[in-house]
Amino acid sequence: QLQASGGGLVQAGGSLRLSCVASGRTLSRYAVAWFRQAPGKEREYVAGYSRTGGYTYHADSVKGRFTISRDNAKNTVYLQMNSLKPEDTAVYYCAADSSIITLSLRDPVQYDYWGQGTQVTVSS
Fold it and tell me: For the segment 57-76, what is each residue's pLDDT rounded down to a tens digit?
């Protein structure tokens, strides 16, 4: 199971750190990603790691503001979100998969395991 947490209400320009904790799985063996979905929009890839951890991707919309990181000892992946904007408002999900290829990292359909989502609301 994946457990996402850390969302909340923040003013524009503020920061939040999301956490994705795994139970029953060793996240360092998985490709792990953060997605987000705003009302009426498709699920969007935000950031993630490849299975080996050798490839890290941040969407252009968050590059320079969001950073994905991992703590293998805690079996946790984080998403540090700085300089938040109202357009970052969404439900954020973490996802993991053990067999996904690098070219498919941004495709939510390819992920087998999902957390329950955490709401991030950025006020203007």
Answer: 999 999 999 999 999 999 99
